[in-house]
Amino acid sequence: MPELREDPEETRIEAYVAEQIRTRRKLAGLNQTELARALGISFQMIGKYENAANRLTVGRLCRIARVLGISVEELLPPDAIARSAASPPLPLGQMESGESLPPDGPGLRDMLEKVELVQKFSAIDSARARRLLISVAETFGPSTE
Fold this sequence. Notes:
It comes from Faunimonas pinastri. The chain is mainly α and about 140 residues long. About 60% of the residues lie in helices and about 0% in strands. It folds into 2 domains: about 1-85, 434 Repressor (Amino-terminal Domain) (Orthogonal Bundle); about 90-145, no CATH class. It has helices spanning about 10-25, 30-40, 45-50, 60-70, 80-85, 110-120, 125-140. The mean pLDDT is about 80.
Protein backbone atom coordinates (compact mmCIF):
# COMPACT_ATOMS: atom_id res chain seq x y z
CA MET A 1 0.00 0.00 0.00
CA PRO A 2 1.46 3.41 -0.91
CA GLU A 3 2.46 5.72 1.91
CA LEU A 4 -0.02 8.55 2.52
CA ARG A 5 1.59 11.98 2.42
CA GLU A 6 0.27 15.42 3.20
CA ASP A 7 -0.56 17.21 -0.02
CA PRO A 8 0.67 20.84 0.10
CA GLU A 9 -2.19 21.88 -2.18
CA GLU A 10 -4.76 20.36 0.19
CA THR A 11 -3.07 22.07 3.14
CA ARG A 12 -3.23 25.42 1.31
CA ILE A 13 -6.92 24.94 0.49
CA GLU A 14 -7.75 23.93 4.07
CA ALA A 15 -5.99 27.03 5.43
CA TYR A 16 -7.91 29.22 2.96
CA VAL A 17 -11.25 27.63 3.90
CA ALA A 18 -10.45 28.08 7.61
CA GLU A 19 -9.72 31.78 7.09
CA GLN A 20 -12.87 32.23 5.00
CA ILE A 21 -15.04 30.63 7.69
CA ARG A 22 -13.62 33.02 10.29
CA THR A 23 -13.96 36.06 8.02
CA ARG A 24 -17.48 35.21 6.83
CA ARG A 25 -18.63 34.41 10.38
CA LYS A 26 -17.47 37.83 11.54
CA LEU A 27 -19.05 39.54 8.52
CA ALA A 28 -22.32 37.81 9.43
CA GLY A 29 -22.02 39.31 12.91
CA LEU A 30 -21.76 35.94 14.63
CA ASN A 31 -19.37 34.84 17.32
CA GLN A 32 -18.08 31.27 17.51
CA THR A 33 -20.70 30.27 20.07
CA GLU A 34 -23.58 31.52 17.90
CA LEU A 35 -22.31 29.74 14.80
CA ALA A 36 -21.70 26.58 16.82
CA ARG A 37 -25.21 26.69 18.27
CA ALA A 38 -26.71 27.05 14.77
CA LEU A 39 -24.72 24.00 13.66
CA GLY A 40 -25.35 21.94 16.79
CA ILE A 41 -21.65 21.64 17.65
CA SER A 42 -19.31 23.12 20.26
CA PHE A 43 -17.69 26.53 19.92
CA GLN A 44 -14.36 24.76 20.40
CA MET A 45 -14.99 22.84 17.18
CA ILE A 46 -15.58 26.13 15.35
CA GLY A 47 -12.22 27.32 16.66
CA LYS A 48 -10.58 24.16 15.36
CA TYR A 49 -12.18 24.66 11.94
CA GLU A 50 -11.09 28.30 11.85
CA ASN A 51 -7.51 27.31 12.66
CA ALA A 52 -7.50 24.38 10.20
CA ALA A 53 -6.81 22.06 13.14
CA ASN A 54 -9.72 19.78 12.18
CA ARG A 55 -10.76 18.75 8.69
CA LEU A 56 -14.30 19.50 7.63
CA THR A 57 -16.65 17.03 6.06
CA VAL A 58 -18.38 18.18 2.89
CA GLY A 59 -21.71 18.04 4.70
CA ARG A 60 -20.46 20.24 7.53
CA LEU A 61 -18.94 22.70 5.04
CA CYS A 62 -22.33 22.93 3.29
CA ARG A 63 -24.11 23.53 6.60
CA ILE A 64 -21.64 26.26 7.58
CA ALA A 65 -22.16 27.98 4.23
CA ARG A 66 -25.94 27.73 4.62
CA VAL A 67 -25.86 29.24 8.13
CA LEU A 68 -23.59 32.05 6.91
CA GLY A 69 -25.93 32.69 3.97
CA ILE A 70 -23.31 32.06 1.31
CA SER A 71 -22.49 29.38 -1.24
CA VAL A 72 -19.88 26.71 -0.56
CA GLU A 73 -17.89 28.08 -3.51
CA GLU A 74 -17.42 31.34 -1.60
CA LEU A 75 -15.46 29.42 1.04
CA LEU A 76 -13.12 27.81 -1.49
CA PRO A 77 -10.12 29.40 -3.22
CA PRO A 78 -11.19 30.51 -6.73
CA ASP A 79 -8.08 28.98 -8.31
CA ALA A 80 -8.86 25.58 -6.77
CA ILE A 81 -12.34 25.62 -8.28
CA ALA A 82 -11.04 26.65 -11.70
CA ARG A 83 -8.24 24.06 -11.60
CA SER A 84 -10.64 21.33 -10.52
CA ALA A 85 -13.09 22.13 -13.32
CA ALA A 86 -10.30 22.22 -15.91
CA SER A 87 -8.72 18.93 -14.86
CA PRO A 88 -10.02 15.79 -16.53
CA PRO A 89 -11.20 13.17 -14.05
CA LEU A 90 -8.79 10.36 -13.29
CA PRO A 91 -9.58 7.05 -14.94
CA LEU A 92 -11.74 4.85 -12.77
CA GLY A 93 -9.53 2.97 -10.31
CA GLN A 94 -6.46 5.19 -10.68
CA MET A 95 -5.00 7.37 -7.93
CA GLU A 96 -3.40 10.78 -8.51
CA SER A 97 0.03 9.20 -8.14
CA GLY A 98 -0.73 7.09 -11.22
CA GLU A 99 -0.88 3.89 -9.18
CA SER A 100 -3.89 1.63 -9.52
CA LEU A 101 -6.18 0.84 -6.64
CA PRO A 102 -6.18 -2.75 -5.43
CA PRO A 103 -8.30 -4.87 -7.79
CA ASP A 104 -10.25 -6.65 -5.07
CA GLY A 105 -12.08 -5.70 -1.96
CA PRO A 106 -15.64 -5.68 -0.75
CA GLY A 107 -17.55 -2.86 -2.33
CA LEU A 108 -14.55 -1.46 -4.22
CA ARG A 109 -16.34 -1.43 -7.58
CA ASP A 110 -19.40 0.14 -5.94
CA MET A 111 -17.24 2.83 -4.33
CA LEU A 112 -15.44 3.56 -7.60
CA GLU A 113 -18.74 3.90 -9.44
CA LYS A 114 -19.91 6.41 -6.84
CA VAL A 115 -16.69 8.39 -7.21
CA GLU A 116 -17.12 8.42 -10.98
CA LEU A 117 -20.73 9.54 -10.60
CA VAL A 118 -19.71 12.42 -8.32
CA GLN A 119 -16.95 13.47 -10.74
CA LYS A 120 -19.33 13.52 -13.68
CA PHE A 121 -22.05 15.29 -11.67
CA SER A 122 -19.53 17.94 -10.53
CA ALA A 123 -18.60 18.62 -14.14
CA ILE A 124 -22.18 19.60 -15.06
CA ASP A 125 -22.31 23.39 -15.46
CA SER A 126 -26.08 23.78 -15.51
CA ALA A 127 -27.67 24.11 -12.06
CA ARG A 128 -31.00 23.20 -13.65
CA ALA A 129 -29.57 19.97 -15.05
CA ARG A 130 -28.04 19.09 -11.67
CA ARG A 131 -31.37 19.68 -9.89
CA LEU A 132 -33.13 17.53 -12.49
CA LEU A 133 -30.65 14.69 -11.95
CA ILE A 134 -31.12 14.95 -8.18
CA SER A 135 -34.90 14.67 -8.56
CA VAL A 136 -34.47 11.65 -10.82
CA ALA A 137 -32.19 10.02 -8.23
CA GLU A 138 -34.72 10.76 -5.47
CA THR A 139 -37.38 8.77 -7.33
CA PHE A 140 -35.34 5.62 -6.74
CA GLY A 141 -35.52 6.15 -2.99
CA PRO A 142 -33.30 4.34 -0.52
CA SER A 143 -31.72 1.19 -1.83
CA THR A 144 -33.17 -2.09 -0.60
CA GLU A 145 -30.05 -4.04 -1.60
